[in-house]
Amino acid sequence: MDDHTLVSAIEEFEDDLALAETADAMERQLAFQEQLGGSATAHEPGCFEFVINPFVDRLTETLGVHERVYTTQLQQRGHFIPRQNLNRSLKESMETSLQRSLY
Fold first, then answer.
1. What is the pLDDT of residues 28-71, one digit of tens each?
2. d(Cα 12, Cα 55) in Å, to the nearest integer?
3. Are 78 and 47 in contact (CB under 8 A)?
4. In terms of C-beta distances under 8 Å and separation of at least 24 residues, what long-range contacts does 20-29 make, across chains too?
5. Which distant-in-sequence residues (6+ apart) come within 8 Å of 55 by Cβ?
6. pTM of the model
7. Centroid of chain to Cα 77
8. Contacts of 45 by beta carbon, 8 Å cutoff, 6+ apart
9. pLDDT at 42
10. CA 5 to chain centre
11. Domain range summary for the chain, segments of one domain joined by +
């Protein structure tokens, strides 16, 4: 086996490995979105929703500060969200949920 054949075989193996890692990452992402409620068969566009529930609402005696603590749960509605849109979708849903809970 000459060097050129060996280099070609190594490059092909690395390409296959990269494809397998990408496929594995995509499968993990889709499985995660399914756990949150996403669906490959949904007809509506995918979106996240943070469900925010009050947990503690008290006035601290030492500083006189109103303290609010919330529990959150992340849910997904509709179709799967493409990987390139995950950050934007999470940010928008968090901002919307916070606005709803503050006002």
1. 777 777 777 776 666 777 788 888 888 888 888 888 888 888 88
2. 54
3. yes
4. 26/83, 29/83, 29/86
5. 69, 70, 71
6. 0.53
7. 12
8. 78, 79
9. 63
10. 42
11. 3-102
